[in-house]
Amino acid sequence: MRTESPGTASARKATPRTIVIWTLVALVGAAGWSVLALARGENVSAAWMVAAALGSYAIAYRFYAKFIAYKVLKVDKTRATPAERLNNGIDFHPTDRRVLLGHHFAAIAGAGPLVGPVLAAQMGYLPGTIWIIVGVIFAGAVQDMVVLFFSTRRDGRSLGQMAREEIGPFGGAAALLATFAIMIILLGVLALVIVNALAQSPWGTFSIGMTIPIALLMGFYLRVLRPGRVAEVSLIGVALLLLALVAGRWVAESSWAGAFTLAPSTLVIWLVAYGFIASILPVWMLLAPRDYLSTFMKIGTIALLALGVVIALPTLKMDAVTDFARHGNGPVFAGSLFPFVFITIACGALSGFHSLIASGTTPKMIQKETQVRMIGYGSMLMESSVAIMALVAACIIDPGLYFAMNAPAGVIGTTVESASHAVAGFGYTISPADLAKAAHQVEEQTLLSRTGGAPTLAVGVSEIFSKVTGGGLRAFWYHFAIMFEALFILTALDAGTRVGRFMLQDMLGNVYRPFKNVSWKPGLVITSAIVSALWGYFLWVGVHEPLGGINQLFPIFGISNQLLAAVALAVCTTLLVKSGRLKWAWITGVPLLWDATVTLTASYQKVFSSDPRVGFFKQRSVYQDGIDAGKVLPPAKSMDDMHTVVTNSTVDGILSAILAVLVVVVIADAARVCVRHIRRPALSTLSEAPYVESRIVAPAGLIPTREEKTEQTEEAERDAVGAETGG
User: In sequence order, what DSSP letters do the residues of 178-215 get, joined into one string?
Assistant: First the structure.
């Protein structure tokens, strides 16, 4: 095993200027935290939440992430990555860091950072803010960066395969099975959110559909027409994207609207077909440029939201900590603050899904090891900022409206009068007239029981933007936000399908060796078809049966995601120990202990709780008793629905228990391997690829340093000389 040279990371002395800058950044963050933590019974501006987040992110990236990258992982810019060594133009392809940053961010930023914080707002703004910021700095972003580093050192191996090779066949088999099963559940849930957002929406369908040909143009532009001209293709892509967004509204108001007004079942077919095609095409052709393109819209919208908060200074109307956090009887979701706020807010703080992307597409495309800090840690901070803005959007609207939108119809009824009365029972007030007015302002017939988080986020976005641009555009901003959310999620679906293909190929490769080559064409077509068919089946059934298909698995989405994070952190901790970094194992070991405690507690409660709104088996018992008594209980509307609820509760309870057991097996086997290595290091082996010197010159961050600019200039001169001499 090669030891990196001391020159891998250049140490810089702090100058008075940098000391002043970082002191000011720290003070901004500290001021934000102080106001949020100490303010009670007074108006608090949402700008303080933004200040606390941005100040904390900047400090974490500059110091903690750099410490991990260069001191702990010892990233080596002289070492060739799999993208360089195995470049085949299909899955392995050295990709410009700016494009790859866009791809990775777009792939990890699905429904979670938009929806989870909105739902968790019922606990108050403070618990969610603390978990999102602290969780991402010490757990989520660390997981993403470390998984990306170790996968890059292992030819882009998937998380499950790394577990099998580094932990052993027993724990590895449990990891492979758990990660693949969870992946299918996550993809089905993401696809369902997209279908719900785009159904009967010609504006959204047209605008999002146009991103595909735009991305193909960008891919060919960078690959064939103008290689390396990232700035040029970015300007072209953004211009065409803005045109598509504007044209989408034109189409929605024209005679063409019918052609782009699709039923849910039609959208399912298109989504499955798109997922399959995107997973088998070369990454440079569609996946990477499309994700890069969507990143402009995602980051642009979030940046504008932050700017809107600073300009409009909206007040946080939700309590810092609500009574629901103390009693666990919230109408949005049941359960106490611990552990369920940490399960509800997954993406944005800590998400197992990210580890699949960090060991899937990204390690096969990264140019230099030194870029793992920007792409792994930096992308997760970007996603966390999305979660913060989603929490802001949910907490600046009237709490009465928030609970009327997010409580199910079985709790608040179907009329504005019944909803107003029910909300009063929660301890908040909103008149029927105000509920009707809120719906009218965004040109919706009703906003009651618009559960799932997306409509609430859209109302919050329209509230912020309309204060800057005028109330007359409130409806425009609402529908723009709905379309924006669909675009946000779709980019996670296509990358996720490709990663699912990698995972299945790794699994089958243990039985039939040709599958080990992830770019083997028969293998990639077969596995892509299987993965697309699996999540497509659950999605199809879910669209046609309100209580079936993926709807059946929706309740275990959050727990599954966090269980997957426990697997990733267990693998990372094992690799830190086995690779001679025992004294730094706490970096992933502490987040592992926290995540395992939270998630296994939640799993236990979801299986065995005596509260039917929490415990799956208790819910099954209640509905079975209803069937025996001949009664129909909400949300069931018929006796057939009652039987479906019993089936769903049984399946969810059993799956939750099985997944928890599999994760416990992985953690226990990982602990065994770590103890064995500490006692007898000679027995341990690493599956790390051998060192090969890199010939690529590329910066570690978005902006090249002076030394990196010199290296790039020298490389360009050598290339020019080689071209002149025919060499």
Answer: HHHHHHHHHHHHHHHHHHHHHTT-HHHHHHHHHHHHHH
- Token readout for 382 is 């970007």
Q: Are 98 and 702 in contact (CB under 8 A)?
A: yes
Token pair of 695 as six digits = 């010939």
Collapse the DSSP code of 79 into the 3-class scheme (helix H, G, I; strand E, B; otherwise coil) and give the result.
strand
Q: Which residues contact 508 (CB under 8 A, 6 or more apart)?
A: 515, 523, 527
pLDDT grade, residue 244 (50/70/90)? confident
Alpha-carbon distance 126 to 385, whole Å?
15
Question: Per the structure block, which two tokens stand in for 686?
Answer: 């690493």
C-beta separation of 215 from 293 below 8 A: yes
Torsion angle of C-alpha atoms 640, 642, 645, 651, degrees rounded to 10 = -70
Q: In this predicted model, what pLDDT tens digit does every residue of 94-150 receive, in sequence order?
A: 999 998 998 899 889 877 788 889 999 999 999 999 999 999 999 999 999 999 999
Specify the 3-state DSSP secondary structure of 283: coil
Tokens in use for 550? 């993926």
Tokens in use for 711? 């290296």
Q: What is the signed CA dihedral for 430, 343, 140, 285, rounded to 10 degrees?
A: -80
This prediction has a pTM of 0.90
User: Which amino acid does the sequence have at 336?
Assistant: S
Residue 475 pLDDT class (50, 70, 90 cuts): confident
Nearest to 198, CA basis, from 276, 190, 275: 190
**Is residue 45 classed as helix, strand or coil in its secondary structure?**
strand
pLDDT in tens, 373-387: 999 999 999 999 999
SS (H, E, C) 631-657: CCCCCCCCHHHHHHHHHHHHHHHHHHH
**Residue-by-residue DSSP string for 665-695:** HHHHHHHHHHHHHHH-GGG----PPPP-B--
Half-sphere exposure of 703 (CA within 13 A, CB side): 1
Please state, in angstroms and rounded to a whole number, the distance separating the CA atoms of residues 720 and 50: 47
d(CA 518, CA 531): 14
Q: Please tell me the predicted confidence (pLDDT) of residue 115.
A: 85
Encode 309-348: b = buried (16+ Cβ within 10 Å), e = exposed: beebebebbbbbebebbeebebbbbbbbbebbbbbbbbbb
Cis omega (within 30 of 0) on the bond before 213?
no
How many residues appear in the chain? Answer: 727
- Give the span between the Cα atoms of 141 and 369, in whole angstroms: 16
Specify which residues 79 forms β-bridges with.
693
